[in-house]
């Protein structure tokens, strides 16, 4: 959920503190809104922090708070054993570092730039060819959430490098290592964003539906959140085991029952002038699951159609 727009000024509500010589130094490459938030958070935690951005003026506010502004990416990389990058894309990162690859030898490069799993694997190979240990990452928050221990930062790649720098990365948010394959963090990022958009869309559709009867979103939302955190989360956990086993006992509510129930949603929305495209899409995938022989199975069997 990275925001790597390089046209915005640094944003952080944390007060800075003097860098402590007892804490490891860190370099941050890229000072868009997200990169600036990363650097500001590391500074506030007491890490000696070196920063670099393609547009030099972007470092001024951080330099005023104690950061060291490097003249070029090579000098920035050479300043710290841990280099955190958050730039436009993978090509921009490799392009910036290409003239300075000698400085990468022995460095741990943590790439928090948004991209695909395949791009992460390509950058990991590139980094390894220049002697760097590589971690790919995904920031599961907006810049305002950087530094909040409740916010997840996903990492994949070199497990030893992650263990070595875990305490430093924890200053940014809860560090979660997903495995040694470099592309896992990007893959989880895409999957989790899909989940987020689906939840947002379902909530907004429900809000529009009850809103047609003059129910405020603020009144509907606590009930929706209780439903999600209670019954829905219980079903998701149960269905995860069914998906892994490839067996979908229809002992709660079968796909056939769900199809009949979604018709109630379609009817209620249509009668109130609320768009029916979203529930119609849900019904379509359920019908495809039924037609594939899963009518008597649980809703988890829909994954066989999605696959």
Structure overview:
The longest helix has 29 residues, at 217-245. Mean pLDDT is 94; it is low at 1-17. The protein is elongated, with a radius of gyration of 23 Å. The protein has two domains: 26-182, NAD(P)-binding Rossmann-like Domain (Rossmann fold); 212-306, Orthogonal Bundle (N-(1-d-carboxylethyl)-l-norvaline Dehydrogenase, domain 2), CATH 1.10.1040.10. Helix 7 crosses helix 8 and helix 9 (255-271) runs antiparallel to helix 10 (277-294). It has an eight-stranded mixed sheet, sandwiched between helices. It has helices at 33-44, 60-64, 73-78, 90-97, 117-129, 159-169, 184-211, 217-245, 255-271, 277-294, 303-306, and strands spanning 26-29, 49-52, 68-69, 82-85, 108-111, 133-139, 152-157, 174-177. By secondary structure, it is of the alpha/beta class.
| Name of the level-1 CATH class of the largest domain | Alpha Beta
End-to-end CA span: 25 Å
Q: Describe the global form.
A: elongated
CATH superfamily of the largest domain: NAD(P)-binding Rossmann-like Domain
Total number of domains:
2
Rg from Cα: 23 Å
CATH architecture name of the largest domain: 3-Layer(aba) Sandwich
Neighbour order of strands in the largest sheet: 3-2-1-4-5-6-7-8
Q: Outline the biggest β-sheet.
A: 8 strands, mixed
pLDDT averaged over residues = 94
Number of helices: 11
DSSP summary, beta strand count: 8
Structural classification: alpha/beta
Strand residues, percent: 5-15%
Overall helicity: 40-55%
Could you say what the CATH topology of the largest domain is called? Rossmann fold
Low-confidence stretches: 1-17
Element string (H = helix, E = strand): EHEHEHEHEHEEHEHHHHH
């Amino acid at each position: 959920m990275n925001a790597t727009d390089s046209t915005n000024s640094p944003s952080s509500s944390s007060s800075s503190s003097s860098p402590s010589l007892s804490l490891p130094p860190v370099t941050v490459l890229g000072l868009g809104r997200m990169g600036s938030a990363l650097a500001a958070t590391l500074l506030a935690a007491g890490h000696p922090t070196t920063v670099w951005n393609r547009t030099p003026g972007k470092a001024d506010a951080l330099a005023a708070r104690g950061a060291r502004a490097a003249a070029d990416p090579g000098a920035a990389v050479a300043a710290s054993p841990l280099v955190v990058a958050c730039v436009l894309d993978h090509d921009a990162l490799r392009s910036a570092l290409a003239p300075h690859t000698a400085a990468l030898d022995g460095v741990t490069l943590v790439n928090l730039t948004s991209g695909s799993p395949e791009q992460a694997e390509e950058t990991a190979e590139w980094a390894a060819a220049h002697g760097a240990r590589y971690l790919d990452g995904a920031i599961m928050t907006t810049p305002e959430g950087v530094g909040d221990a409740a916010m997840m930062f996903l990492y994949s790649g070199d497990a030893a490098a992650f263990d070595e720098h875990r305490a430093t990365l924890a200053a940014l948010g809860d560090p979660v290592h997903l495995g040694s394959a470099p592309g896992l963090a990007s893959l989880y990022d895409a999957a989790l964003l899909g989940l987020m958009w689906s939840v947002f869309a379902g909530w907004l559709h429900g809000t529009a539906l009850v809103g047609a009867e003059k129910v405020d979103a603020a009144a509907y939302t606590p009930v929706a959140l209780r439903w999600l955190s209670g019954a829905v989360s219980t079903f998701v956990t149960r269905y995860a085991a069914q998906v892994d086993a490839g067996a979908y006992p229809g002992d709660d509510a079968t796909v056939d029952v769900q199809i009949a129930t979604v018709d109630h949603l379609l009817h209620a929305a249509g009668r109130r002038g609320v768009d029916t495209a979203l529930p119609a899409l849900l019904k379509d995938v359920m019908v495809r699951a039924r037609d594939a022989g899963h009518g008597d199975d649980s809703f988890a069997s829909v994954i066989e159609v999605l696959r």
